[in-house]
Specification:
Structural class: alpha/beta
CATH class of the largest domain: Alpha Beta
CATH topology of the largest domain: Rossmann fold
Number of helices: 9
Distance between the termini: 31 Å
Number of domains: 2
CATH architecture of the largest domain: 3-Layer(aba) Sandwich
Radius of gyration: 21 Å
Strand content: 15-25%
CATH superfamily of the largest domain: von Willebrand factor, type A domain
Largest sheet: 6 strands, mixed
Length: 286
């Protein structure tokens, strides 16, 4: 994907989002859009889901929770720009950029703001969340330059700590990465710190079904490590070990999501962009 193609994603994303939203029966969820305001007495016809059951149990009173809408949602993508996200054909990188473009189009339509922290070896680039067209174009233009630059291993833990220090509470944080982390447990704990700080967090794991989850794809071929340039002949057993490793990494993220209160999704690079986008905006639990 070259610079012109990425800039053109703005128009592609707007068109896709327009048609996509027409087919939805409920509003997308980029986080929680309501804040608790006060109690009032329950009256017949009120929805039972707004009854404060804790008050009922303790005081035997039927009270309904009232909420006020939260405006100006701030969504931040934490993008892993490590070399493993590019691979031989850049499928994961292209997938990530398309999802950011679609998110930018939707957030712009809702008059909400989008920011970005792009992380690669020895370098970070932070964009404060804004909702102007110029800001969205600047963000995508930056990603276009990232596509042609060499990359090493990005430090996502450092990126998470930076977000903890710089973004305001109740932001939506969407972490886009792949499974190749030596300490996935530690990374998950750091994600939990974002939740504890009052943010709504989604971890998106980008995976290729045809390559990384199909052992026969790499068996018998030479593979060059995109981060070390080391060339290795892959046996079938080695390929099966890769498959097992990725499945284990997914399970770690899944288990920690339940423990720390964040949402996780697996995005397959072979799936249609709108199918992956539906996963991103789906409410927690779907």
């Amino acid at each position: 994907m070259n610079k012109d193609e990425i800039i053109g994603l703005q128009w592609w994303a707007r068109d896709k989002v327009r048609g996509f939203m027409t087919g939805l029966h409920k509003s997308p969820d980029f986080g929680f859009s309501l804040d608790f305001a006060q109690h009032r007495a329950y009256v017949p016809g009120d929805s039972p889901k707004f009854i404060d059951w804790t008050v009922l149990a303790r005081q035997d009173k039927y009270l309904t929770k009232q909420y006020e809408a939260e405006s100006n949602l701030r969504a931040y993508f934490l993008l892993d720009s490590s070399a493993s996200m590019y691979g031989s054909a850049g499928e994961k990188w292209d997938c990530a950029v398309r999802q950011i473009a679609l998110s930018a189009a939707l957030l712009s339509k809702q008059r909400d703001a989008l920011g970005l922290l792009d992380v690669r070896e020895g370098e970070e680039r932070f964009f404060e969340a804004k909702n102007t067209e110029d800001a969205m174009e600047q963000l995508l233009s930056f990603l276009a330059t990232r596509n042609s630059q060499p990359a090493g291993n990005g430090d996502l833990l450092k990126g998470i700590h930076r977000l903890l220090a710089e973004i305001t509470p109740r932001s939506e944080v969407i972490i886009m990465t792949d499974p190749y982390h030596e300490d996935m447990e530690g990374l998950s704990q750091a994600v939990g710190a974002l939740v504890d700080a009052g943010h709504f967090v989604k971890v998106l794991l980008l995976i290729s079904k045809d390559k990384e989850l199909t052992p026969e794809h790499y068996a018998g071929s030479f593979v060059i490590d995109s981060e070390t340039s080391k060339k290795t002949l892959i046996s079938l057993e080695d390929a099966k070990s890769l498959n097992h490793f990725i499945e284990q990494q997914i399970e770690i993220v899944k288990a920690n999501a339940a423990m720390y209160g964040y949402t996780y999704k697996v995005l397959y690079t072979e799936d249609a962009p709108l199918l992956n986008f539906r996963k991103i905006i789906a409410p927690k639990g779907e």
